[in-house]
């Protein structure tokens, strides 16, 4: 069976089951021994993997340098607050999270237009919050981890307690949200990466998912059930949809 079809069925099954419970009615007629429930699942598909580096988007905890050339007394370093906004003199808090440098500059320039004559605000990144990634499967301590500085898939696995003896190190799965919001999936041979410094260790981005499958198992159904149903709807959905304020 094609890997994407396997993963699609694994993702769809938990949600289909939860949908039956939500209906509030269960058919209690006895099921004969020959009756077998059947279901079909559409292939959700993954976007083609791209290593293109998108424009950086601010996140709570990032430190931002604000410069207003026409009013240098307003120059200031500010930290993006937990609600995603930055607080500056003379204007109301402005949403910064999930915005690029150019988008934030435009928002601040517009905000200061009511206070200054033709303001032109400049924004630069002073420091960034740690990368938050999800690590699961055959590792010592699955969970959500903050990675300071640049991180890659092998470092994430090591931070999560390293590989278990049952791990399939040659086919570690990386899942990432693509530029258009669709998930991208690829695998990485981290066994080679432990002995070859030139190996592809997959540099990570914020909210990437790193999953180490069991050795000899060709599908990741258990992972999809545990992480997409139980973990990601809470944490990942906040990351993707939590900063839609103005």
Keyword list:
246 residues; alpha+beta; five-stranded mixed β-sheet; three-stranded antiparallel β-sheet
User: What's the Cα radius of gyration?
Assistant: 23 Å
Q: What fraction, in percent, of the residue positions are helical?
A: 25-40%
Q: Would you tell me the overall average pLDDT? A: 75
Strand order of the largest sheet: 7-6-10-8-9
Our estimate of the beta-strand percent is: 15-25%
Mind explaining what this structure looks like?
With 246 residues, this protein is an alpha+beta fold. 26% of the residues lie in helices and 19% in strands. It contains 5 helices and 10 strands; from the N terminus they run αββββαβββαββαβα. It has helices at 3-22, 101-112, 153-159, 190-193, 221-241, and strands spanning 63-67, 76-79, 85-86, 94-95, 122-127, 131-137, 143-147, 172-177, 183-188, 209-212. The strands form 3 sheets. A 5-stranded mixed β-sheet has the order 7-6-10-8-9, covered by helices on one side. A hairpin with a 7-residue loop joins β3 and β4 (94-95). The longest helix has 21 residues, at 221-241. The relative contact order is 0.16. Mean pLDDT is 75; it is low at 1-39 and 233-245.
């Amino acid at each position: 069976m094609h890997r994407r079809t396997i993963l699609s069925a694994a993702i769809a099954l938990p949600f289909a089951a939860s949908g039956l419970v939500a209906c509030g009615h269960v058919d209690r007629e006895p099921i004969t021994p020959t009756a077998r429930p059947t279901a079909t699942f559409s292939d959700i598909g993954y976007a083609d993997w791209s290593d293109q580096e998108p424009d950086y988007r601010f996140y709570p905890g990032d430190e931002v340098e604000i410069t207003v050339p026409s009013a240098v007394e307003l120059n200031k370093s500010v930290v993006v607050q937990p609600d995603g906004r930055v607080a500056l003199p003379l204007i109301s808090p402005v949403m910064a999270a999930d915005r690029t440098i150019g988008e934030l500059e435009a928002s601040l320039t517009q905000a200061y237009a009511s206070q200054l004559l033709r303001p032109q605000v400049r924004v630069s990144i002073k420091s960034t919050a740690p990368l938050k990634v999800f690590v699961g499967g055959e590792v010592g301590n699955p969970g959500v981890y903050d990675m300071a500085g640049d991180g890659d898939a092998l470092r994430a696995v090591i931070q999560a307690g390293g590989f278990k003896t049952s791990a399939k190190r040659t086919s570690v799965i990386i899942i990432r949200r693509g530029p258009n919001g669709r998930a991208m999936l690829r695998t990485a041979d981290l066994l080679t990466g432990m002995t070859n410094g030139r190996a592809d260790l997959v540099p990570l981005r914020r909210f990437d998912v790193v999953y180490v499958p069991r050795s000899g198992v060709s599908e990741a159904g258990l992972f999809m059930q545990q992480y997409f149903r139980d973990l990601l709807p809470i944490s990942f959905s906040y990351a993707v949809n939590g900063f839609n304020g103005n």
